[in-house]
Amino acid sequence: MQTFESASADTAPVRDLFPGIRLRSLWSGPVASAHVLEMAPGSIWEGIDVHEPGPEEVYVVDGVFNDGTRDYPAGSFIHCPAGSSHVPQTTQGCTLFLFYPEG
Fold first, then answer.
1. pLDDT at 2
2. Distances from the Cα of 51 to the Cα of 6, 9, 15, 57, 74, angstroms
3. Which of 45, 63, 64, 68: disulfide with 88, CB 3.0–4.6 Å?
4. Quick one: which of 32, 16, 34, 35 has its CA closest to 24?
């Protein structure tokens, strides 16, 4: 029988990445990982977020996320291929579910 792993974003360890941007790690496997990213209104990633070695999968849980070019409202899914980059930001704030299938 397989054993399931679970986590709650409410109790997951919090890491402050930049002012107004917090990461909650939910799960890490040998290669893949899953996280919740909370971005306060007006926050912006410092520098360019480059996706290496693998892609990033983003689901906008609430608010409006902007990748530096376009707005993505709650319910949006974004696939960022390996080697791609963007500057995450938000004017009104947002919560994102992030999945890294290859590290």
1. 84
2. 25, 23, 19, 10, 22
3. 45
4. 35
